[in-house]
Design a protein that fits this description.
The structure is a single chain. Helices cover about 55% and strands about 5% of the residues. By secondary structure, the chain is mainly alpha-helical. Helix 39 packs parallel to helix 41 and helix 41 runs parallel beside helix 43. The longest helix has 19 residues. InterPro entries: Ankyrin_rpt, Ankyrin_rpt-contain_sf, nSTAND3.
């Protein structure tokens, strides 16, 4: 065997060898570890490098002998420590990796490898192996010890070893020997750039040895079918590659889930049927679906980096399988064509149909025979139904140009009794232009314009959208009726100038629905008269009416298209009031191509081409959008008589107003000057501007002085006051008082203007105490108490103190105003006077509570004025015992608001007033908390009920005041046993409003109190006068959280009915929440409780004393509980 190996090496050495990077790295790894694995694709030169390595070692170490092993079992024959160079070529076989081979390797490697290599470099045997990529990838799942690892492996198919210089040398090395063949430099570069990257050395040899391949030159390397065909024939099993091909050359790894719905079972069966036929093995073809899917994924993984690329999708992150090079896909396509032409017609990807032809034009194309036509007709119709709008591959089929094929197609349609109109419509939608035109020539015309347009419209990847094909339009135009031509014209306006021009040349005129501005939307800058788009625009203008021309002019201004603008103006088109004329001079116009002076010249030119109404509109736009310089220029064009004051004043903001006004005002008439004065008076304007306007003899009208006073312009007021009537002066005084303009008030009063009734109220409301001092001497005594009340109401402390210092006596109602005002200093000051604090107010100023007949402490509690409450309790604690018309005291009013701090203030005051002797209180202390059990405080709280029998605890429960509820339960435990006049316990109210946590906390206090008095707590016995439990209340209010808590914690409640026979499920059905989930949960717990007691649940037998079911109760809600009613109706029907 050693002799045979030497002979092979000698034969290999006769060939010229290029020292490559792969050879150098393999030599380095062999020297370092004694083992090297040369990995690569078929034809990459693995064996050649291995032979060169053996020859190099023999030269370096003559004592070494080469030995090639052909079978794994031959390792048993290799003696250890004999300085052999062992070589295994194409390890694990030529066809595929078999489990037996891998098992044999694993069985020997632990003992053979040390024996082969030894422990010392001089004694060690060397091991050189070559292995194909697909075989190596298949081995990844097996344990092959430490041989096939990165430190021992050289992958000559990787990018690191695809050196451009080496490829150039290979091309020269394997140049054809006969003739004067030579490569051009550009051809070499093209080959290096486009070759598939699979077996390049072998392709070079094939090109040298086969003259018929040399005719193709570069094309052979682009698509080396001859080489790839040989590669695929060695694989043995091509089912996975064929399945990849039939799926369009791309498959996501997650789509190969056998439990999913992404796998096309028809294509899978076809792949395995043809793949097994290729190798004459039916074992794989007979496996089940899951095994086939697993085999496909396993095979694709093994081909990864060789025939298949496995990449990661950037969007989804999934692995995607595709062909390593398009030439691999075309080779698989050719093999499939040759194996089953009919299968290829039926199943190949749409893009591969282009390879079908009716005459022999290329060795790589399949010729359709007449026997194949019917299969092709059927495939074409399928493609008509599924074509992507942006896919035009169906139109490029070569069969459309074959007259025999098309005649056969017509006959086939007749034989199948298919609707030819439907076929031509689908052909148009699929962009099968040649097919559609043939059918039209036979009198089969589409019946709507949209079908025609889908034939004309083509997707352009360069334009990034759909465009019209004028050549197609010319061919189909004879088949259009008049009704279709205008809609086609409208569609063409959006995407094809050529189509528009052609239709115009054929007499098609714009009409309803035509989007004419779209003809120049994409061309916002300079337009040349010779420009094709401008020619389209000119042609269109000749066909449209005046109204449309104005619309076009508006768009031309909007898109800043001067060429279009001046063309339309020269045609006599007049702008409308909506035309954006000022767009030509805007400095911030992003689409403006011209500089400022060019824009101004354009504006002047436009100005002389429009009438007076448009000039006025231009002025308004200039004021609104432009700087003031062009505005002044327009004024010099005698436009001052038609200016818009609002727009002009808006344009003045942020500039030197006084200077501009001096120039403008001389051009205005009296009415405009007056309007300008009013505008200046009513805005944030410097007084010098007003003086500038008045200096030009602007005559004031009756509105002017009010604007002047409002702007606090005293110098202007002094200039105009002599022209004012007494009534206006009085009104001005009131206005000055209202805004607190003290200087103006003093000035007017100094001019003998009398202070009337409205003025003082304005002064007090504004809190202007200095103005109040000015007018005080003119006020009647009868009005001063009212002013005091107003000052208290507004909280104006300075005004209150001033009026009190002027001996104004507070009224009995005055404290109420002070409480509303909220100024505690004012209240303290009032309490220094002899005021009857027991005075009652009709109702509270807090609109949230309807409370009548209240004292001042009640009001302070309801308005939550904490500091005022403390002041009133300290001053007159008897107020805390007073009640309103419903017998509610201050404590109950505080319970309404839930303000815990105020409650404690009032509580301390009340308890302090009950007995001055602290020993008689008998209050207890529990864990540092004061608890009122048998003391006078507890008895007071129990008796403190309103007309409904509500205690403060009831009130706090109803108002959802959690903190106060818990405080009262803990501090006044006897309150937890008090029921109101309807027999309702505090827990009834808690069940309506509070959370589960608050309910359970309060319930604990109720339970503790009952047990402390020798009674037992039973929640089923807590019933109101109607027999309702807490569960009934929670169900009625739709409180799902508490409802479920009761059902889970107290299941016996689900069986309790009220005195009218009302069940908890009745109450849920009557609730306006229509909560199906809540009903189902409660029903489940009710059913479980009944079954635990030996009873059976039947929802149809849950009746109240009137015989009403839960379905009846839900129905009575008049549509509010429709969801629950529908649910119950289904449940009742299922029971029936």
């Amino acid at each position: 065997m050693i002799g045979i190996t030497k002979a092979r090496i000698e034969e290999e050495m006769k060939n010229i060898f290029i020292v490559t990077k792969g050879f150098q790295d393999a030599k380095e790894k062999l020297q370092k570890t004694g083992v090297v694995v040369i990995k690569g694709n078929t034809g990459d030169g693995k064996t050649t490098i291995a032979m060169q390595l053996l020859h190099w070692l023999m030269e370096e170490q003559p004592s070494r002998q080469p030995l090639q092993l052909h079978d794994i079992t031959d390792f048993d024959l290799a003696p250890p420590k004999t300085q052999l160079i062992t070589f295994v070529d194409n390890m694990f076989g030529e066809k595929d990796v078999y489990d037996r081979d891998v098992a044999e390797w694993n069985k020997r490697i632990k003992s053979v490898l040390p024996a082969l290599c030894g422990n010392k470099q001089k004694q060690a045997n060397f091991l050189v192996k070559s292995i194909r990529n697909e075989v190596f990838n298949s081995l990844k799942r097996d344990s092959l010890e430490n041989v096939f690892v990165g430190s021992n492996t050289v992958d000559i198919s990787s990018k690191d070893y695809k050196v451009e210089k080496e490829k150039m040398e290979l091309l020269d090395l394997y140049k054809p020997l006969h003739g004067d063949f030579s490569w051009r430099d550009n051809e070499k570069k093209a080959i290096v750039l486009c070759e598939p990257g699979i077996g390049f050395p072998q392709c070079c040899k094939l090109f040298r040895d086969f003259p018929e391949l040399q005719k193709d030159r570069v094309k052979f390397f682009e698509k080396p079918y001859y080489f790839l065909n040989g590669v695929l024939s060695k694989l043995g099993e091509c089912s996975a590659l064929l399945f990849l091909f039939l799926n369009g050359g791309k498959i996501r790894s997650k789509d190969l889930d056998p439990n999913g719905d992404k796998v096309n079972k028809t294509l899978l069966e076809e792949s395995f049927a043809i793949g097994s036929m290729h190798v004459g093995d039916s074992k794989i073809a007979s496996t089940d679906f899951n095994q086939k899917i697993g085999y496909v994924q396993k095979s694709l993984d093994s081909f990864s980096g060789f025939l298949v690329a496995k990449d990661t999708c950037r969007l989804s992150g999934d692995f995607v399988y595709s062909f390593y090079h398009y030439s691999v896909q075309e080779t698989v396509s050719l093999l499939y064509q040759h194996t089953t032409p009919i299968g290829f017609i039926q199943n190949c990807p749409r893009t591969c149909l282009y390879n079908l032809t009716t005459s022999k034009t290329s060795s790589h194309r399949m010729v359709l025979l007449p026997d194949h036509y019917s299969y092709m007709y059927d495939r074409v119709l399928r493609e008509f139904d599924s074509t992507d709008p942006r896919d035009y591959s169906i139109d490029y089929l070569r069969v459309w140009t074959n007259d025999q094929f098309m005649k056969g197609f017509m006959s086939w349609l007749d034989d199948k009794s298919l609707d030819k109109l439907d076929v031509v419509n689908k052909a148009c939608s699929a962009h099968a232009t040649k097919c559609a035109l043939y059918l039209m020539s036979k009198g089969i015309i589409p019946d709507n314009f949209a079908t025609f347009w889908s034939l004309i419209e083509k997707y352009s990847y360069c334009e990034g959208g759909f465009v019209g094909d004028v050549d197609v339009l010319k061919e189909i135009f004879p088949y259009l009726n008049d009704e279709m031509k205008l809609p086609l014209f409208n569609e063409a306006c959006d995407c094809s100038d050529e189509c528009v021009l052609y239709l115009l040349s054929k007499g098609v005129q714009p009409g309803k629905g035509t989007d004419l501005p779209s003809l120049f939307e994409s061309y916002p800058y300079r337009q040349d008269d010779h420009d094709n788009n401008f020619s389209v625009f000119q042609a269109v203008v000749g066909y449209v009416n005046d109204e449309v021309k104005v619309e076009l002019l508006d768009y031309a201004f909007d898109f800043y298209s001067p060429g279009y603008v001046f063309y339309l103006l020269r045609q006599g088109v007049k702008p409308s009031k909506f035309t954006s004329l000022w767009s030509f001079i805007e400095e911030d116009n992003d689409s403006c191509y011209y500089d400022e002076w060019e824009r101004w010249d354009m504006l002047v030119n436009i100005y002389f081409m429009v009438d007076d109404d448009i000039k006025s509109n231009l002025w308004k736009q200039a004021c609104s959008y432009g700087p003031m310089d062009p505005v002044l220029k327009l004024l010099k064009q005698n436009l001052g008589t038609c200016i818009d004051i609002d727009a002009f004043w808006s344009g003045l903001q942020g500039v030197n107003q006084e200077e501009i006004l001096m120039e403008v005002v001389v051009n205005l008439d009296d009415q405009m000057k007056l309007e300008l004065l009013h505008k200046a008076c009513s805005t944030q304007t410097e007084e010098c501007v007003l003086e500038c306007l008045l200096a030009d003899d602007v005559k004031c009208d009756e509105n002017t002085p009010f604007c002047v006073v409002k702007r606090k312009c005293m110098n202007v007021l002094k200039n105009i006051v002599n022209d004012l009537t007494d009534d206006i002066k009085l009104f001005l005084l009131n206005v000055a008082c209202y805004i607190g303009y003290e200087e103006c008030v003093s000035y007017l009063l100094s001019g003998d203007v009398e202070c009337k009734e409205n003025a003082p109220f304005c002064v007090v409301k504004r809190g202007s105490v200095n103005v109040l001092r000015s007018i005080n001497k003119d006020l009647r005594d009868s009005i001063k108490p009212v002013l005091l009340n107003l000052a208290c109401y507004t909280g104006s402390e300075e005004c209150v103190l001033f009026l009190l210092s002027e001996s104004v006596e507070p009224e009995t109602i005055t404290p109420f105003y002070s409480v509303k005002g909220g100024n505690v200093n004012v209240l303290r000051k009032l309490l220094e006077y002899d005021i009857t604090l027991s005075t009652r107010a009709y109702k509270s100023n807090n609109s949230s509570y309807h409370v009548c007949n209240i004292n001042v402490l009640h009001e302070a509690c309801l308005l939550e004025k904490e500091e005022m409450v403390a002041v009133l309790c300290d001053t007159c604690n008897i107020l805390a015992h007073g009640t309103d018309e419903l017998k509610r005291s201050s404590l109950q009013h505080v319970a309404m608001t839930g303000n815990f701090q105020i409650f404690q203030i009032v509580e301390r005051s009340v308890m302090k007033s009950l007995s001055r002797d602290e020993n008689k209180h008998m209050c207890e202390s529990v864990n540092g908390r004061v608890v009122h059990k048998m003391c006078v405080c507890a008895k007071y709280m129990e008796r403190l009920v309103d007309v409904c029998g509500w205690t403060v605890l009831h009130e706090s429960c109803v108002r959802e005041n959690k903190e106060l509820c818990l405080y009262l339960c803990q501090s006044y435990p006897a309150l937890t046993a008090v029921v109101d006049k309807d027999g309702r316990h505090c827990l009834h109210y808690l069940a309506e409003w509070m959370s589960v946590e608050t309910f359970t906390d309060c319930e604990t206090q109720v339970k503790q109190y009952l047990e402390s008095t020798g009674r037992r707590y039973d929640i089923t016995t807590i019933l109101d006068n109607n027999g309702r439990t807490v569960l009934h209340e929670a169900c009625m209010s739709g409180h799902m959280e508490l409802c479920l808590h009761f059902c889970q914690s107290y299941p016996e409640l689900t069986a309790v009915v009220d005195k009218y026979g009302g069940h908890c499920l009745h109450y849920i059905a009557m609730s306006r929440t229509s909560n199906v989930e809540m009903f189902n949960e409660c029903e489940t717990h009710e059913k479980q409780y009944l079954e635990s007691t030996g009873r059976k649940h039947d929802i149809t037998t849950i009746l109240d004393k009137q015989g009403k079911t839960v379905l009846d109760k839900a129905k009575y809600q008049e549509g509010v509980n429709n969801h629950l009613y529908d649910h119950l109706l289904d449940e009742f029907l299922s029971c029936i």
